[in-house]
């Protein structure tokens, strides 16, 4: 019984850590780079679906109609594109909320620091993705 639990834990660690890192490495290979840091999960999903699509046509030897349909690539394009835009929509919505809270905190009985937190979250959602980790950190809304 203990061996089964150990194997289960090892598989869980593999699924949670190793596979996403492999998908991220595949992301660099395929040239899929997210536009912002907030879109990294969507790029990982997209590259993982691309990886599955490449396995369907190659090593798995599935029927030709399934291997050549490239359905995973189509779903990956959607995950990295339109689904990733939900981060932008969230950022725009938080920007509007932050603008409203900047004007009305005293009238609504809210703390004065609340608009600053909302605007900071909004700015961090739009922080651009860059592979340059040696340069200065870019904050889009820095004063």
Structure report:
The chain has 143 residues and is mainly α. The protein has two domains: 82 residues, no CATH class; 58 residues. Helix content is 67%, strand content 0%. The chain is built from seven helices and no strands. The longest helix has 29 residues. It is elongated, with a radius of gyration of 21 Å.
Distance between the termini: 59 Å
Structural class: mainly alpha
Poorly predicted regions are: none
Please outline the major beta sheet.
none
What is the string of helix and strand elements? HHHHHHH
Helix content: 55-70%
User: What is the residue-averaged pLDDT?
Assistant: 74
Strand content: under 5%
Record field, number of beta strands: 0
DSSP helix count? 7
- The global form is elongated
Number of separate structural domains: 2
Radius of gyration: 21 Å
Give a quick precis of the structure.
This protein is mainly alpha-helical and 143 residues long. Helices cover 67% and strands 0% of the residues.
Task: Provide tags for this entry.
7 helices, elongated, mainly alpha, 143 residues
How are the SSEs placed, and which strands pair?
Elements: H1 2-30, H2 40-57, H3 64-67, H4 71-80, H5 85-103, H6 105-108, H7 114-125
Helix pairs in contact: 1-2, 2-4, 5-7
């Amino acid at each position: 019984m203990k061996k089964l639990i150990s194997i289960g834990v090892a598989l869980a660690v593999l699924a949670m850590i190793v596979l996403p890192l492999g998908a991220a490495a595949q992301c660099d290979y395929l040239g899929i780079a997210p536009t912002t840091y907030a879109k990294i999960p969507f790029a990982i999903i997209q590259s993982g679906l691309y990886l599955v699509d490449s396995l369907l046509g190659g090593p798995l030897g599935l029927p030709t109609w399934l291997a050549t349909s490239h359905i995973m690539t189509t779903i990956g394009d959607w995950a990295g594109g339109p689904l990733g835009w939900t981060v932008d929509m969230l950022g725009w919505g938080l920007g509007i909320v932050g603008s409203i809270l900047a004007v009305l905190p005293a009238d609504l009985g809210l703390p004065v620091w609340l608009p600053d937190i909302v605007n900071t979250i909004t700015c961090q959602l739009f922080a651009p993705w860059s592979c340059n980790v040696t340069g200065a950190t870019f904050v889009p809304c820095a004063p």
